[in-house]
Write a structure and sequence with these properties.
Elements lengths: L37 H4 L13 H4 L13 H4 L4 E4 L11 E2 L1 H6 L10 E4 L9 E4 L1 E2 L1 H9 L3 E4 L1
Amino acid sequence: MRIEDLQSPLGSRHSKKRVGRGTGSGLGKTSGRGMNGQKSREQVRRGFEGGQMPLQRRLPKLRGISRSAMPSAMHRKKYAAVNVGQLERFDAGATVSPETLKDMRMVKKLESGLRVLGEGRITRALTVRASHFTVTARQKIEAAGGKAEVI
């Protein structure tokens, strides 16, 4: 096979539309623009809303990145969450950190840190290191004889 033998796959190349060249072409008379209306007569720019105040002018001007100007979801912190009951897998006396949870695939992504929630029961004394603990999670860890350390 040589470079001059190469061909494009069948159906990948299309002939150019010849608009307004008679009814036999399928694109005669109105040239594929339909019957009446503004779009059949002239080009209407993208985003034109028929004289209504367009979207880009209705929105307030948000310049720069500041917490007051931008939506709050943009600045909201996202925590990876683990329940106290899931920590029962670890041996007594073990230190549980966000990295160990990620290695064990209990957490997919450590975004802004780790948050330990109070769902479930724990019977083993563990040292848990996380960014945030709920009140019930902290109580259950300490009642089992463990420590809850904030990173």
